[in-house]
């Protein structure tokens, strides 16, 4: 297959990542070949190596990019107020950030196991830093008596799983608006911490 006209590093590189994200989310990391990704982009399989060294590096880049975006957006969210206000702010932020990124969320949870140990450790550290943001809110709420939580770490993981699960079922054409769903989730989260 000849190089597709207009195939340049500044456009082809992102197209490679977008195609890989979509294909891996649909079929799984093990089932997707570099040849399939190349075919989706419209370049020869060998040309992919101009943009990414190997499939493992590609998966790491996809997961690392997602986690970096999460961390940057979370830092800009600037949650403030009481622990309960910060918890609601985190809930709404998490839903709004993750919903339009279903494929990236899927990869971040389902394909993490396919990373080499050193890459796994780097992504796990970023994930832990994000989780720590929520855990600090819970700890502050326990300290001031506004939350009753048996274990802040377990509660953090459970809440993030609950919030992230919305990407599996949410339908923009459904009977409730996103804002209504966020409000229901905020109530569920409050109940989870006995607020």
UniProtKB/TrEMBL annotation:
Residues that span the membrane, as ranges: none
Top-rank taxon: Bacteria
PROSITE patterns recorded: HTH_TETR_2
Residues annotated as domain HTH tetR-type: 10-70
UniProt-listed Pfam families: TetR_C_24, TetR_N
Keywords, comma-separated and alphabetical: DNA-binding, Transcription, Transcription regulation
DNA-binding region per UniProt: 33-52
Descriptive protein name: TetR/AcrR family transcriptional regulator
Organism expressing this protein natively: Loktanella gaetbuli
